[in-house]
Amino acid sequence: MIKESAEDYLGGIYRLREAAELPLPLSRLQEYFGFSRVSIHEMVQKLEERGFLVYHPYRGVTLTPAGEEVATALLRRHRLWERFLTDKLEVPWDEAHEIAGRLEHVAPEQVTERLAEFLGQPERCPHGGPTHPGATPHPETPLATMEAGIDYRIARIAPESPEVLTGLHTRGLRPDCCFRLEQLTAEGALIALGTETITLPPTLVNVMWVTPVENAPT
Ligand SMILES: [Zn+2]
After folding, report:
1. How far is the CA of 140 from the centre of ligand 1 (A)?
2. Which pTM value belongs to this model?
3. CA angle 187, 191, 194 (to 5 degrees)
4. What is the whole-number distance in angstroms between the Cα of residue 10 and the centre of ligand 1?
5. How far is the CA of 128 from the centre of ligand 1 (A)?
6. Is residue 162, in this structure, part of any structural domain at all?
7. Residue 123 forms part of a structural domain
8. 53-99 pLDDT, tens per residue?
């Protein structure tokens, strides 16, 4: 049984990294958790001693197969509980993430698997994250790398944080929404959603993963 904070670190590394083989800089973890450099280093050292990750000096951390296993199991629990909260209890989409962040640590594996059964084995969480992380390929691309003048569908929001989820929620944006990317600069993006034009700050642009829509319905 590994402690809650250790699980959060491993889950955080999995969420934030761009690719499994690419070391995640510790500054990204610091930003994400809001902890000091010192406590990040301490935790990284502990997790390395226990065989969950490898620290590459000056570059960051990668997960070992054991770390990968803890992270994907955590994310699966998180995403299934989110699904339950939004679909069955009608908890708003942005609040569900936070509540699931607590349930994921206390709900035993067998109970979560029964929950998956009860929910009809959903493929994705309400934010588009796969419920079988690791086994599901991601065909989607970051919005920040896309071309303007094209219609896109939101496939996934990652990494999720209460701030970005609230920001997207208040703008009416969620997975499966389609919009036209009007303009993309370092200051953010301008998108057309239905008849509305919406400005997105970089913090929101950077969490949106999209797929191009061909022959978008009008
Ligand atoms: Zn989610």
Report:
1. 16
2. 0.85
3. 160
4. 16
5. 6
6. yes
7. no
8. 999 999 999 999 999 999 999 999 999 999 999 999 999 888 899 99
